[in-house]
Amino acid sequence: MNELLVQTLIDKLRQVDALYYRLLLLVAPSGSGKTACLRSVQDVEGFPCVNVSLELSRQLLPLTERQRALQVPQLLQTAVAASDSTRVLLDNIELIFSPGLRQEPLRLLESLSRNRALLVAWPGTVDGRHITYAEPGHLEYRRYEIKDFLVVDGARRDESAS
Fold this sequence. Notes:
The protein is α/β, with parallel strands linked by helices. It contains 5 helices and 8 strands.
């Protein structure tokens, strides 16, 4: 476990309160230890952690495809609000990228971060001023400019924050 990375996340999470979107993304490829970092932050600070894909899949199962697309924002908002905390950790967000749910993942996370600070494990990469999810040509591919939120590059070992 990279203790410097965990401390960087805790420090940056406090900084997001000054932003319009109180959103901090820990960006690193799948399998790189994002969940372990979130667990360490949870152990140190006591913030609740929501497994987004697990929570949403449980609640979306009985709904039709159309209902699913319409209900995702409210269901995720309810799951985050149920934590009853001003800071919440979100892990396993892959489901919100599913084309069948017709969501704009970053906009959804930004909307959620208006009422509480979020630290989100984002499976992807940081490339200069952009974050990505999936590879170009993949149905779930997304590329966003880093703007109005904070990013920590979890793949960088020498310098933990961007």
